[in-house]
Write a structure and sequence with these properties.
The radius of gyration is 23 Å and the shape is globular. Helices cover about 30% and strands about 20% of the residues.
Length: about 500
């Protein structure tokens, strides 16, 4: 990756920062390979605009956001010979892919999984990046009830079967404009009073989709899946972003606050720079669009604005607790049917994934994720100890270190990932993906089949690059480069 500071001078490789996306093996979600790409020129006359008055433009395309979607789109366009500049608000690339190594163990603050390795394009990207992976075995689970009683395998199997049956029954009762939670209360008013059932709902459903009072009762199970194992990148998920960013021209510390389209030019206003191009690709998270952080001139069409408002954006926060040595079961997953349904009830044993880490990874979902913002590290430590001491006894020591995400408070994310909310229609994802003149759009929230996933972001970046290149070609007559050699890299 080629990075520049706001003053235009070249900087070094950015540090992996704290600050997306994560889902347990129990969740319903189950993502072309890029080689090193050459650096495109950042300034100079734009030959692709020769048919539009030979304007002096800074780039053929400006990409807003250096997450997976933005890096993928930029790399694909650069491979065609397009001149591309990426503006990134953060001091690092990756977006909601971020890995914190401050404790000597990779803590994926954002994305953690490749969901289904068969046919998933991220499988090839991870291989090309030289990343080491390990399947996370969702069947290797130890589950506890309150008081430290262990749920039996038969009890867990029964609860999962009852949950699947519930989803089928709820499908017959779901109604537009009505939440999953409302319909659940109608057909099974005591469902969440059963602690094991509540645990399954929390880890299978709420984790992916947000609070039950916000989730659509008709679209709760939408989204395509890939077959195969759920795998973790044992040396950190940011290897994906690093690989995608090789050779891509990224200017860091440049939050975009205005995008103007006038005639044949898109002008993108960053914190310190203003770039003019023949097209732009907007890849910022849905939460940023919802917040109105970017002033689009002219304003986005009403249909696009409706889609932005209607698609849900979930809250999930991640927490890593580290001890001197493990005291917990030697299993991939530890689950707990806690009184608080969506807080610290699901633990990933990082000691199994990264030996020597002596750490557990756990989560807060939906409203519990919102509440976590108001809690200090000490308060969160006390809460997790209450749970773990109920499972393993009062002798459980306090952790020696804590790390956490704060996606809800991050102005460049504003929560974690999209879901089908009560007001959502599947067509909204298509509307979010549609170009508006010279503006193109990418990101996980723009992919109808693979929303809320990193592979969805990756695929949307490819799509946006192809649409942008096609539009530039139609306007200017400039031929596109052949793709096959690019794909073989």
């Amino acid at each position: 990756m080629i990075v520049t500071r706001p003053d235009g001078r070249y900087g070094g490789r950015p540090m992996a920062g704290v600050g997306e996306r994560h889902e347990p093996t129990w969740s319903r979600r189950r993502f072309l390979q890029l080689g090193a790409l050459g650096l495109a020129a950042l300034t100079g006359a734009c030959s692709s605009n020769a048919g539009e008055g030979a304007q002096e433009l800074d780039a053929d395309v400006v990409v807003i956001g250096a997450g997976v979607a933005g890096l993928t789109a930029a790399a694909r366009l650069q491979a065609e010979g397009r001149r591309v500049v990426v503006l990134e608000a953060r001091p690092r690339i990756g977006g909601r892919v971020a890995t914190d190594r401050s404790l000597g163990v990779p803590f994926d603050v954002g994305a953690s999984w490749i969901h289904g390795t068969t046919g998933n394009p991220l499988t090839a990207v991870a291989e090309a990046a030289g990343a080491t992976t390990r399947p996370l075995d969702g069947d290797d689970v130890v589950a506890f009830d309150q008081g430290g009683r262990r749920w039996s395998e038969s009890e867990l199997a029964r609860a999962e079967a009852e949950f699947n049956d519930l989803l089928e029954r709820l499908a017959a009762h779901g109604r537009p404009g009505v939440s999953f939670g409302e319909v659940l209360a109608e057909i099974e008013p005591g469902w969440l009073d059963d602690r094991l059932r509540a645990l399954v709902v929390s880890t299978y459903l709420t984790f992916d989709t947000g609070g039950l009072d916000q989730l659509s009762s008709t679209l709760y199970d939408e989204g395509a899946v890939f077959e195969g194992s759920e795998v973790v990148l044992t040396d950190g998920y940011d290897r994906i972003a690093e690989h995608l960013g090789r050779g891509v021209a990224v200017r860091l510390g440049e939050p975009v606050h205005r995008i103007e389209t006038t005639g044949s030019t898109v002008t993108v206003h960053g914190a310190t720079q203003r770039l003019r191009a023949g097209a732009a690709i907007v890849t910022v998270p849905l939460g940023v669009l919802k917040a109105g952080s970017i002033d689009f001139r002219p304003p986005l069409p009403a249909a696009k604005q409706e889609a932005i408002e209607s698609v849900g954006f979930n809250r999930v926060e991640k927490f890593l607790f580290q001890w001197e040595r493990p005291f917990w079961d030697d299993a991939d997953v530890i689950a707990y049917s806690a009184a608080r349904r969506d807080l610290f009830n699901y633990f990933i044993n990082l000691e199994r994934l990264r030996p020597g880490s002596a750490a557990l990874l756990t989560f807060a979902y939906a409203e519990e994720a919102v509440r976590s913002d108001q809690r200090s590290d000490a308060e969160l430590t006390q809460l997790v100890l209450e749970h773990l001491r109920d499972l393993y006894g009062p002798q459980v020591p306090a952790p020696i270190a804590v790390r956490r995400s704060r996606w809800g408070a991050d102005p460049f994310a504003r929560r974690a990932y999209s879901f089908t909310a009560v007001a959502t229609e599947l067509s909204h994802f298509d509307v979010l993906a549609q170009p508006v003149g010279r503006l193109h759009f990418a990101g996980e929230h723009t992919h109808r089949e693979h929303f809320s996933t990193v592979h969805g972001a990756y695929l949307s970046g490819q799509r946006a690059a192809d649409r942008t290149a096609g539009a530039l070609t139609r306007r200017t007559g400039q031929a596109r480069s052949a793709y096959p050699a690019f794909h073989r890299r």
